[in-house]
Amino acid sequence: MDAPISTAFVFPGQGSQKIGMSVSLISAYRSGENMVRLIESVTSCPVLSLINNGPIERLTETRNAQIAIFATSYATLHVLKEEFGFSVERNVSFMAGHSLGEYTALCAASVMSVEDTAKLVLRRGELMGSAANDEYSMCAIIGMNYAAVVDLLEKYDAGDYVVAIANDNSNTQVVVSGHTKAVQDVADRAKKAGAKNAIFLNTSGAFHCKLMSEAAFAFDSVLGTVEMHEPSVPVVLNFTGTLLDSVNALPAMLLGQMVGCVRWRECVNYMVRQGVKRIVEIGESTVLTKMAKRDYPDLEMINLGTVLEIEKFMRIR
After folding, report:
1. Is 99 considered catalytic here?
2. Is residue 221 annotated as part of the catalytic site, yes or no?
3. Among 47, 50, 234, 267, which is most exposed with the fewest C-beta within 10 angstroms?
4. Catalytic pick from 16, 22, 93, 99?
5. Which of 78, 177, 208, 285 is catalytic?
6. Sign of CA dihedral 44, 47, 53, 54
C-alpha cells in the first residue's frame, strides 16, 4: 500500500465571504446545518440568513464576515468527519489558518471547543470592526516580495503616520496596513519600483498593525476566559510561521497576530519543509490554495466547499 500523502488543512480568513458560500453543502447534511445552528445559538448571530440573504454589504462587515466564515469552514469540516468518516488525527499532518482562519484551525485541532471559538471569533470581529476608521486602509502589493516592501517602509519607522506589513502572503503578494496617506504613498512607490499592481482592499480597518492595539488590549481579557488544550494535530501559527509548541503561549500569539504581521508565506514554507505535498483548503474559498500554488506549483492543491468536491477527495485520499 502506498504511504499516505502528507496533507495540510488550511482555513481562509476575512475577505473570502460571499453570498451563498457553502450553503449547498450545509443544507445537504443535517450535521452541517446543526453545526451552524449551534454557532448561531452561542453567538446570537443569524449566520445562515446572512449567507443566504445578505446583502453583501452586511455580510462583509467585519463582525459578520468573521463569524460567517468560521461557521461555514468548521461546518464543512464537521460534514467531512461525520458524514464521510474522515479522521483528521489520522490523515492530516498540519493545520493552519489565515488570520481569522487560525481560529478555525485551532478549533479543528481540538485546542478550543466550538462554543468557545465561536464566542472568541464574534468578539474579535466586533473589536476589529470597532477599530475601523475612515483614515485607515489596507493595500495588496502584487509582484513584490516581503524584503522589497520592507525597504519601502523605512521612512515610516518613526513619525506621525503608521504603515506596516499586515500579511506576508506569498513571494509575490504582500499586504500593507495603516494610515491611508502612508499606505497610498507606499503603493505609489511600489509601482514605481516595479510592482505589478497595488490594490486597495475593501476594508476601513488597518488590521494586523499597531493601530489594532486597543482592540487587542480589550480582546486579552476575553482570551483569558477560554480553556485551551494541546492540539490533536500540529498547528502552524501566523505570528511565528512555525508550530505552536506550548498552549500556554497561545494567547500571546493570538494577540500578537492582531497587531502584527500574518506570516502566511512562512507558514506554508514551514509545512512544505516538513514534507507536506498536498494542501486542502476547507470551505468555499480558493484564496489560500491559489497563493500557495504560485510559490509551489508542484504541490497538489484541493478545495473542499461542495458535496462533489468532498466526494472526489474521499476517492483520491
Report:
1. yes
2. no
3. 234
4. 99
5. 208
6. positive
